[in-house]
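Signal peptide peptidase SppA: structure, please.
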Amino acid sequence: MEPAVLAAIQNFMQQMSGRNASGISPWAIRPDAIAASLQTVRAIRSPQSMGEVASNVVSINRRGSPLANGSFATRIGNIAIVPVIGPLVSRFSWQYWSYDEIVRDLRLVSSMPDIEGAILDMDTPGGMVDNVDSVPAEIARLREKMPVYAHANFCCSAGYWIASAAEKIVASKTGLVGSVGALIRYVEMEGILTRLGANVVEVIAEQSPNKRLSRDSDEGKAELQAIVDDGAELFIQGIVANRGVTRETVLDDYGQGLVFASAEALKRGLVDQIASLEEVLADLAGRRENSLIAASATAKAGTEKESTMLTLETLKAEHPDLVSAVRAEGAADAAKAERDRLIGIEEQAAGLSGHDELVKALKADGKTTPAEAATKILAAEKAKNVDRLKGLEQLDQAAAGVTSTLSGGDGSEKKFPQNAEGWKAEWEASAKLQEEFPTAESYIATMKRKPLKAA
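Here you go.
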């Protein structure tokens, strides 16, 4: 396994262990599928170079051409394909797929007038419970405009939660579907720290005695159980609302955490059909053709009923009140269209910071559509991430080859390289630095910022 993939897996497992910034949180995911899913995500994202998607991405799959620059969503004709791949987290990450990214793709699809149907391309073991409900909500809004299907190759846990919001779930013949439920995985690290010589000190306010309950105590276990039970219940209620089934049906037929092959999933009602991606595309295209035929027939019938034709001059002369009403309605429609355009642009920037001036300019030009705004905002966000990576690289380069001097008690001096290993050694050799910085990592982070301040 590639070192970068292994590092991503270790990072992901740390998040599952409750050592992420938000603390303990429930997950809806199949742990046994994390490694393979992360490699899939890395294979898709690896063509990125300095924030741009390489032109060969589309040529290696059968999912059409990019929907917009910088987006992994694609289109085949008038049908959009929105990927839901690998372990899922709440916010944007280069290593994992995120709910924010899926929502942004769905909004992009909604803003494109020539898109007439959408497919959720499901290949995920699941992910965080936090923020997952934002995706079904966005799918519901998109379904008001067009049909939305989910094609499930690997559709488990939080992934199934998302797919359940689609009009139809279609599984591939070799697909795996299910794992309805939630879990918390917690790794207690204090024992390891103690063995390494660390003295773990913790003081809890008298007003909050339950702030850090021991995970070994009955109370601590009850706290975790309540959190994970709540996540599972939210999952179940989401399926009840999305699939139109009862809670008892979910508990009795959906496996209570089991994963099913496509045929069994179809028998149990987790999916509606077994078919390939191409068959799903043909199904949606057929619906479009049928709707066009119906619209044509309606228009023809209306034309046959029309017995007379009015010119604009005749209409103005004979029906001035009607002309005024039409003009007023047209002005109102134009005003509404402009409001919708401005709101659409603001939605594309929702949850992202640092793009206020760009959004202001896009709104002011009077012509940029929400779809065009999404492309420009996404490009700006990627450029910002690239600049951040370049800044970190410049910090490392600025520190290379520089040394610092630590004075000994006998007047001797010892020099340390100005890089992460040197700063760590310097911290370990200095009682004064250890008093000022609680960990070597905090000292290293401080030293890395110094070149930026000097610049």
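Notes: The mean pLDDT is 78.
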